[in-house]
NADP-dependent oxidoreductase (Brevibacterium spongiae), 319 residues
Amino acid sequence: MSRRVQYTSNGDIDQLHLAEVPVPDVGPGQVLVTVLYAGLNPLDWKMLQGGRFGTVESASGNGVDFSGVVASVGEGVADFAPGDLVYGGLPKQAQTEQLLIPDPAERLDKIPHGLGIDTAGGLYVAGRTAVAGIRALGLSEGDTLFVSGASGGVGIIVAQLARNLGARVIGSASPGNHALLDSLGVEPVTYGEGLWDRVRALAPNGVQAAYSTQGEDEITGMLDFGIPAGRIVSIGAGPTVAETYGVSIAGEAKARRDDMVWLGQAIAYGHIHVPIARVFDADEVQDAYRHLLTAHPAGKVLLRFPAKPLTDQQRAHLS
Ligand SMILES: NC(=O)c1ccc[n+]([C@@H]2O[C@H](COP(=O)([O-])OP(=O)(O)OC[C@H]3O[C@@H](n4cnc5c(N)ncnc54)[C@H](OP(=O)(O)O)[C@@H]3O)[C@@H](O)[C@H]2O)c1
């Protein structure tokens, strides 16, 4: 048997529990992964709540991001073999011990040498969203970019990618996360009342572009501050809001197949740092979700599934 994070009706965090489920059979073209780390995203909580993310009518898994070890491969799979260290994403299923990947060519990559298996387990949603966002921003060297939620899973990658492109980056976060942003070359400001006065104090000559992780109020604040609509990219507002104000949406749907490989290598080479705020054992799943939503974590929150220790060869590959 395997264990997975499960809920049987939409609601809040207390719906989540670990359930025993059969180990899936591996069919032709499929790959079975023993998951070691599964990253949490606000999306997982939104899916649990239901609403525009759909209503569950029977037991459902949760989570998208994962990393682990290939346990077995189906007939015809040539690109992966048992023992490979892998990472990827599979919506509403990843928080499980044994994860069946039906379409490995689309969803699975080998972990590059030097990328930690824990970091790899929290990259799929935030990482791909961030890379898509930076493409949409079209930054030039010397631009000043404002990033909201710069201490969050997405914002912390966007901010560093922008710095690497030669932009000056001002990022909003709660005060407890300012030192982290400082250490990454991002100028921190506290969000909330008076935000734009604080941004103006840092950038009296203005800000050329903005990345918005929040809703409509944040977008109107950016426009009032003088940032052109054509240079604002949002992942927090829906299409109606974006259309109303003429800003772009560049969510995960705009990511490309090779974005994970590219980002994984950038992290492995030390060009981007993705901090891990806290790792919870899988049976602490409710605490993990609460931590994500209420503790202002500095980086990613991960679930860890117990599994056999890695072999010496696997460890050597990761270091
Ligand atoms: N459209 C898409 O495809 C897509 C993809 C990924 C994410 N998203 C959405 O984008 C948002 C951010 O995702 P994430 O993974 O980065 O989340 P996260 O890791 O939970 O980070 C949230 C960030 O928002 C900041 N924050 C909290 N309250 C804020 C406020 N009132 N004003 C400004 N910033 C605030 C947090 O700062 P502190 O922790 O320092 O307080 C933190 O930096 C979520 O709503 C998520 O669902 C959308």
Observations:
- The radius of gyration is 20 Å.
- The chain has a mean pLDDT of 96.
